[in-house]
Amino acid sequence: MRALGMLLITAASLAAQVDSVALDRIATEELAKQKIPGMSVAVVKGDRVVYSRGFGVASVETNAPVTPDTLFRIASLTKTFVAAAVVELSEQGRLRLDAPIDNYIYGLNPEIGRLTSHQLLSHTAGLSDEIHLRGPHDESALAKTAQSFNNSSLFTEPGGIFSYSNLGYVLLGRLIEVIKGKPFADAMDELVFQPLGMNHSTFRPTTAMTYPLAPGHGDDGKVSRPDVDHAGYWPAGFLFASGSDLARFMIGFVNGGSLEGKQVLSRSLIESMSRPNLRIPGMAERYGYGLFVDESGGARVVSHGGNIPACCQSQIMMAPESRVGIAVIINRSGDASAGNVASRILERVLTLKSAPQSSAPPTASPAQIAGKYVQGAGFFWIDVAGGKLIGRDLGTQGETQELEPVGGDCYKGGPSTLCFWQEYAFVGGRAFRKQ
């Protein structure tokens, strides 16, 4: 989910052309090091695709090569396109982003219905996070899933904090299909994919399978069977797209909505998606609508990634003022990282250097932090021993880890960084409330 972290982009940093040999080397190195079966990489500068290549194989069973047109599941990068569709509907005057969604959708739990599109788009709705990777393929599942959310889906009052939630984007997908009066997949085609010329992008597996397609692979390196799919959660992370299609979106985005001489996205839509909302403790970025926004280095990098276990990962990173975009998709998850590949490529295309890391002292004492933190069915404990913080159940059930301070009220515990603010603990952009 994270983008680049704290990066400084210097002026006049773009070369006239990308170094294709250097980018090939980065991609092949990462393919081997991360044991990724296949990868698609696209780089745009200005109004052109300057680099678009496939590496490795779509499937370890068929050994079919990845090409720029190979479809992958792009996981949570899906949210960027759902956000674009919702903002487009608002610009058409068909919904108000600050209005309760039950103004448009019938049959929702009253507490869910009072949430606004703005809160859902910006992950400030107070919703817990969950996603089911396998389930019904019937497209009526989206309405049923949205209607199943209730008071227990909320872990705090809406509007006060950022906490990443797949549930919010399920509700937005339902909002799109209700307002458009057609199935979600068709509505997305009309609102986003057709105007951008993303001609192979689809939510429907039965459509995706008619094109070159990369199935997901597990940590064992084998093709995952059955592959992931749950029509009730399509808007949260199940879009199929290719490197070529993502390149078209990035060109439109970094060129003020212009693509091949046509205005396919409005400038105001791009501004809305890129406008940062609430701060996220422990993260340099803030979230706009469907995009993380990092302004910590004096220039903006907007990004989003995605990760589906036993399937796939994706990452886009765009520097709009430099008119540059990077997209990476891979057909493996686990300890692989599409974000690492994209970061290396962006650092090669631009001149980047890390901004200084914070060394601020903590403001809360260990005793103030200690307690049980809960979000939905998830929870962990923070204890104090010998004046130090100890985390319990941060990963494996029953596991304990000493938390090492990393600046301010943030601590490192194993692979995770925990940041404490008021009554919340933030882990990877998800908030847990102290009981």
Could you describe the 3D structure shown?
The two termini are 27 Å apart. This protein has two domains: 1-357, Beta-lactamase (3-Layer(aba) Sandwich), CATH 3.40.710.10; 366-434, Lipocalin. Helix 5 packs across helix 6 (166-180) and helix 6 (166-180) crosses helix 7 (184-196). The chain contains 13 helices and 22 strands. Residues 1-16 have low confidence and may be disordered. It is α+β, with helices and mostly antiparallel strands and 435 residues long. Strand 21 and strand 22 (430-434) form a beta hairpin. The strands form five sheets. A nine-stranded antiparallel β-sheet has the order 17-16-15-14-22-21-20-19-18. A seven-stranded antiparallel β-sheet has the order 3-2-12-11-10-9-8, with helices on both faces.
**How large is the radius of gyration?**
21 Å
**Count of separate structural domains:** 2
Output the CATH topology of the largest domain.
Beta-lactamase
The overall strand count is 22
Strand content: 15-25%
Oligomer: single chain
CATH architecture of the largest domain: 3-Layer(aba) Sandwich
How many H/I helices? 13
Beginning-to-end CA distance, first to last residue: 27 Å
Helix content: 25-40%
* Shape category: globular
Relevant CATH superfamily of the largest domain: DD-peptidase/beta-lactamase superfamily
Let me know the average pLDDT: 92
Q: Determine and state the CATH class of the largest domain.
A: Alpha Beta
Sheet with most strands: 9 strands, antiparallel
What structural category arises from helix and sheet content? alpha+beta
Strand order of the largest sheet: 17-16-15-14-22-21-20-19-18
Q: Any low-confidence stretches, pLDDT <50, length ≥5?
A: 1-16
